[in-house]
Amino acid sequence: MAAQQPAGQQQQVRPPQTAQKKPPAPRRGISGCSLWLFVIVMLAISLLGLGFLQPAKLAVAQEFIIGITRGGIRETIETTSVDSCIRVAGSDQLQSITRTRRVTTYNNGAVLELTYSDPPLPADCR
Q1: Cα 58 to Cα 28: distance, rounded to the nearest angstrom
Q2: What whole-number distance in Å separates Cα of residue 68 and Cα of residue 65?
Q3: Residue 1 pLDDT more than 60?
Q4: pLDDT of residue 3
Q5: Could you tell me what percentage of the chain is helix, strand and coil, using 3-state DSSP and rounding each to the nearest 5?
Q6: Helices (DSSP H) in the chain: which residue ranges?
Q7: 107 — pLDDT class (breaks 50, 70, 90)
Q8: Rounded-to-integer distance, Cα 85 and Cα 121, Å
């Protein structure tokens, strides 16, 4: 005897398979990952170059990144002053050395202090 289906359920009829199937989607190669890796490496190199050429601007980016883990930046104070005057060897000309001091206070109480010295500049240091 053939098994009968319970009432309310009907046997589903599947349509016959067609001879044409969709071609598989082309696989994305490693080029997508390589592109992102290249972009990340170039950003890292440019930040490193920025650090050597303009350390004060790199410090701002570093302060922000550190601030994320410290609950944010509470206060930043930057002062620039003439640190000293030096005499150039072999002449009577004086040159001044300016120093920039940047103090950043974070919301958790941590303090980051950076000091930059500029190259000597001709000045009247009387």
Answers
A1: 36
A2: 5
A3: no
A4: 57
A5: 30, 30, 40
A6: 31-53, 55-69
A7: very high
A8: 9
Burial of 7 (0-12, 13-18, 19+ CB in 10 A): exposed
Name the nearest CA neighbour of 103 among 86, 115, 119: 115
| 37-46 long-range Cβ contacts below 8 angstroms, 24+ apart | none
Count the neighbouring beta carbons within 10 Å of the beta carbon of residue 106.
Answer: 19
Q: How far apart are alpha carbons 41 and 43 in whole angstroms?
A: 5
Residue type for 126, please? R
Q: Which of these, 76, 62, 61, lies nearest to 107 by C-alpha position? A: 76
What is the band of 105 on the pLDDT scale with cuts at 50, 70, 90? very high
67: number of Cβ within 10 Å = 19
Query: Helix, strand, or coil here: 81?
Result: strand
Cα separation, 59 vs 55, in Å, equals 6
pLDDT at 103: 92
pTM exceeding 0.85 = no
